[in-house]
């Protein structure tokens, strides 16, 4: 059908190693298949559908401190524009190395 594919809601998780693993796995797969994505929540909006209770699934804890592990996992280099057709891209959160 040649329709664009975009993942707009994933990683609704707390600042933990499990959260980093989930975000990294999704982002790695989207890179492999050239799929766009966006993290779904920047800060807490008292979402009634969340399983986090009174904790934050956004970038900031309730006390205003940054959820560093999560933000690091979400901060990735990507190809904004390419001459020709992009076949694949790969970013390593551990080393910061990127190839496309």
**N-to-C terminal Cα separation, in Å?**
25 Å
What is the H/E string?
EHEHEE
Question: What is the spatial order of strands in the main beta sheet?
Answer: 1-2
Percentage of residues assigned to helices: 10-25%
Structure overview:
The protein has 100 residues and is an alpha+beta fold. The chain has one domain. Helix content is 23%, strand content 8%. The chain is built from 2 helices and 4 strands. It has a two-stranded parallel sheet. A two-stranded antiparallel sheet has the order 3-4. α1 (17-32) links the parallel β1 and β2 (36-37). α1 (17-32) packs parallel to α2. The longest helix is centred in the first third of the chain and has 16 residues, at 17-32. The chain is globular, with a radius of gyration of 15 Å. The mean pLDDT is 83.
List the helices and strands and how they pair.
Blueprint: E1 6-7, H1 17-32, E2 36-37, H2 68-74, E3 90-91, E4 98-99
Parallel strand pairs: 1-2
Antiparallel strand pairs: 3-4
Helix pairs in contact: 1-2
For this entry, give a set of tags:
4 strands, 2 helices, alpha+beta, 100 residues, two-stranded antiparallel ribbon, two-stranded parallel ribbon, single chain
């Amino acid at each position: 059908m040649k329709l664009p594919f975009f993942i707009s809601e994933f990683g609704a998780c707390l600042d933990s190693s499990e959260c980093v693993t989930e975000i990294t796995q999704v982002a790695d797969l989207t890179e492999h298949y050239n799929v766009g994505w966006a993290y779904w929540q920047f800060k807490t909006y008292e979402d009634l559908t969340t399983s986090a209770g009174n904790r934050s699934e956004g970038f900031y804890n309730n006390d205003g401190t940054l959820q560093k592990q999560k933000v690091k996992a979400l901060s990735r280099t990507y190809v904004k524009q390419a001459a020709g057709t992009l076949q694949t891209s790969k970013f390593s959160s551990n080393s910061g190395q990127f190839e496309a």
